Amino acid sequence: MTRLFSRFVLKISLLFILASPAVASAQEMLVIAHRGASGERPEHTLAAYERAIDQGADYIEPDLVVTQDLHLVARHENELSDTTDVGEREEFADRRRTKTIDGTMVSGWFAEDFTLAELRTLRAKERLPGVRPANARFDGLYPVPTFAEIVKLVRAKQAETGRTIGLYPELKHPTFLLQEAGIDSVDLLVTALRDAGLDDAEDAVFVQSFEVAPLRRLNQLIDARLVLLATPGKGPADEPALRYEDMLSPSGLAEVTSYADAVGADLRLLLNPDGTPTGLIEAAQAAGLEVHAWTVRKENVFLPKPLRSSGGEAARGNVEALIGLLDAAGVDGYFTDDPAVAIKLREQ
Fold this sequence. Notes:
Elements (H helix, E strand, L loop, with lengths): L2 H16 L1 H7 L3 E5 L11 H10 L3 E3 L1 E4 L5 E3 L22 E5 L2 E5 L7 H4 L27 H15 L4 E2 L2 E2 L2 H8 L3 H11 L10 E4 L2 H10 L3 E6 L13 H4 L2 H7 L5 E5 H4 L9 H7 L3 E7 L22 H11 L3 E4 L2 H9 L1
Helix pairs in contact: 1-2, 1-13, 3-5
EC number: 3.1.4.46
GO cellular component, one term: periplasmic space
Keywords: Glycerol metabolism, Hydrolase, Signal
């Protein structure tokens, strides 16, 4: 991560400035609004999703958890204290629990312990106020949206804009919810997609999960495109003997193609420390899988050191160069908290 990386980044940056083919190629990558325009509004709110749509994102990405009365709602995790004001609500003080989720002990308030009516009394807040203090201005304004409301928003914006707006939901901890709470989030999502007419392969829908069994079930129940999420050094919660690196080897990819259409990969699995491709993108695409990278963010704290600016962790770095690296590596799309940046590149 030294002079070689810096030189490679400089080369990519110059390509974006001087070479129109680089910009044209960037247009081909799907822009997936990660939890909405979460670099500008508190994540997983209708305001964040609508802002991302208005900025031109191809897809919006809601993470889905489930209420006690079986409603799909959008939160980053089923534990609510990081993204809502539940910890400040005295009437819910006795709902605090400690649970072991995918092998990790977590304390807090959990969506599956609240009815939808109770959850709707909560208000969203910025999850990263130290990095995004401007987003904290919107704390307390927005309720937790249901998946049905998100679909309704997408339909309304499609009618308004005349363009297709995709949905890219992730099921959070489906095996935990099934085994510990008796909640079948796979079945709930399948029903919701069927009811909305969004369960066919030609629909602008990707369904993603870090777990294998839920994807296998989804593959039997709907024709919507499916995505295996992967991060280095870990494996699926429902397959503890597996590691994502092994699953993404040439032989492992052949198995992944039996239940998924794409891989959603952590940036570290796609790019070496010097900025060159690891080979996973080429191997996955050769196996017939699309590759979607996560997550592109503009703040220094999320960027490789050579792409950071002065001004501290919250300052804006050279995110355009990172997009250039992904473009040069050949990814099919990328998740970003800042869809406006991607769309600006398209418009140049």
